[in-house]
Design a protein that fits this description.
By secondary structure, the protein is α+β, with helices and mostly antiparallel strands. The protein is built from five helices and five strands, in the order βααββαββαα. Strand 2 and strand 3 form a beta hairpin. Helix 1 packs antiparallel against helix 2. The longest helix is centred in the first third of the chain and has 21 residues. It starts with a strand and ends in a 24-residue tail after the last helix.
């Protein structure tokens, strides 16, 4: 199970919303994760909504954002911690309302989400699906069998394994005998 995880602190201020998006994009790039358009959009919107809700409804001066990527489960978990003990309550916004759709967006774009009390307040979290990841050089070194299978899949079923020798032939000897 390959995992990446990192936390960072932000001031509980509206300017933290774009900063959190940029930090998340930097982490995804640093970890070498490949996202398709839908997972990238979901991750960006969910992060924006979680941080916006913490800024508007949270307490305390700081927010802690934790991002974890689990490659074997193909999921990215975003957690936002603030000092408030009040858990979010989803409600339906009217068409004229300017806000109130954040939790509905998170519900629609995430695989799962939730909120829980912590010792210092609460954590609101959501998981986003990742597309299958490419085999990297580091993974080739760490998992040689998995790497061999991935290479075999890339070459396709038409090619035969390199270790197979046809019956009756002598591998590498194409000379004719002059007897």
């Amino acid at each position: 199970m390959r995992c990446h995880s990192q936390s960072f602190l932000l001031v509980r201020d509206p300017t933290s919303v774009p900063i959190s998006r940029h930090r998340l994009q930097d982490l995804v790039k640093k970890w070498g994760l490949r996202l398709d358009e839908s997972s990238d959009t979901a991750l960006t919107v969910i992060t924006s909504e979680l941080v916006t809700n913490a800024v508007r409804h949270g307490t305390g001066t700081m927010l802690t954002i934790t991002v974890s990527a689990n490659l074997s489960r193909r999921r990215i978990l975003v957690e936002v911690y603030d000092g408030s003990l009040v858990l979010p309550v989803p409600h339906w916004a009217d068409s004229e309302d300017e806000s109130g759709r954040g939790m509905a967006l998170i519900d629609r774009l995430s695989l799962c989400h939730g909120a829980e009390h912590t010792t210092c307040g609460k954590c609101v979290w959501a998981e986003v699906a990742m597309p299958p990841q490419r085999v990297t050089r580091q993974r080739l070194i760490l998992r040689p069998r998995r790497a061999a299978r991935a290479i075999a899949r890339r070459w396709g079923a038409a090619r035969q394994p390199l270790t197979a020798v046809r019956a009756g032939s002598r591998a590498g000897h194409g000379r004719r005998s002059l007897a």
